[in-house]
Amino acid sequence: MEKRLERIKKHLHSQSYKLTPQREATVRVLLEHEEDHLSAEDVYLLVKEKSPEIGLATVYRTLELLAELKIVDKINFGDGVSRFDLRQEGAAHFHHHLVCIECGAVDEIQEDLLGDVEEVVERDWNFKIKDHRLTFHGICHRCHENENTED
Amino acid sequence: MEKRLERIKKHLHSQSYKLTPQREATVRVLLEHEEDHLSAEDVYLLVKEKSPEIGLATVYRTLELLAELKIVDKINFGDGVSRFDLRQEGAAHFHHHLVCIECGAVDEIQEDLLGDVEEVVERDWNFKIKDHRLTFHGICHRCHENENTED
DNA sequence: AATTAAATAATAATCATTATCGATTGACAC
DNA sequence: GTGTCAATCGATAATGATTATTATTTAATT
Fold it and tell me: Considering CB atoms only, which of B78, B98, B113 is closest to A76?
């Protein structure tokens, strides 16, 4: 984790931004909750546990900065809040999501899946793809299993 | 267009909702701007042109109702507002979008594209897909052409 | 130590959306 | 026709996420 933090620090420096204590605390929370899909408020509350003096606006600014530098991705599942997801290091593209309409769980798919599709889109629509968002809504394997036993 | 309106009316009735004048005016605006991706406020202003007495809350309520009945899809391109898109009649799935990061244009892809991908996801992740959202961010064919001439 | 720009905390402001509530409408019973 | 009831509506207040403001703090540089 320290290594990733170090690389993020270098990434910030390369754009003449500093890794202030507040920014470091925020990045640490993101690293510690990589599996989750935290809202800005979620991040704020978690950062506050270790750095109680931090302000909400600072967390927003930090997340915005990290999104700008493509260190995190800002995503939106239609529930009114933006969520922030660390991008996998070296990942060419943003990972995909499975949102369960029963329990609300959000799982990730790191695999590419879209290679062929992107080729078609670039060629047939003459569209130069820079990024993508792919989310499936449906019933996750956990709810699926429960249904079988409960019914 | 009258036919589609008629079918939407039946769809509402089948769920014991009425096609009130306000709802009809709202649906007409959506039908007349099928190519666009209107926000609730956009819809409100357009409906107001022909039905000045309509209230903003009614438009919100109507759009919410239409989304519930899967007549429109509520989408979010990350700019802080929800947008509403009529679903193609008979379309099994929601269409995809191409968002240009230069000019902001949003184009639609009606083709399926995801058939193979969904098969893999359902099998390998044991996830029952009900809907999907696929958006590509990049440079549209118009901006692409302009770049070639302007540079 | 003085100067300066970047970053911060606290909080006010904004903006999209939702909730509230009294008024209106339309269907149906009488 | 009139009364009743539920659905719907318009106006507007309330909410909640996000952004802007501003005075203060920090860190780097002179």
Answer: B78
pTM recorded for the entire structure: 0.89
Nucleotides of C under 7 A from a protein CB: 6-12, 15-20
Closest Cα partner for A85 from A73, A96, A97, A76?
Answer: A73
A117's CB contacts (< 8 A; 6+ apart) are B113, B114, B117
CA-nearest of A45, A34, A50 to A24 is: A50
**What's the CA gap between A56 and A45, in Å, rounded?**
9
Residues B6-28 have pLDDT tens digits of: 999 999 999 999 999 999 999 99
CB contact under 8 A, B136 and A137: no
Nearest one of B71, B61, B78 to B34, comparing CA atoms: B71
Cα–Cα distance, A75 to A53 (Å, whole number): 27
Strand C atom within 7 Å of B79 CB: no
Strand nucleotide closest to residue A54 (CA to C1'): C9
In chain B, residues with a C-beta closer than 8 Å to the C-beta of A120 are 113
Whether nucleic acid strand D comes within 7 Å of the CB of B80, the answer is yes
pLDDT digits (tens, 9 = 90+) for A32-82: 999 899 999 999 999 999 999 999 999 999 999 999 999 999 999 988 899
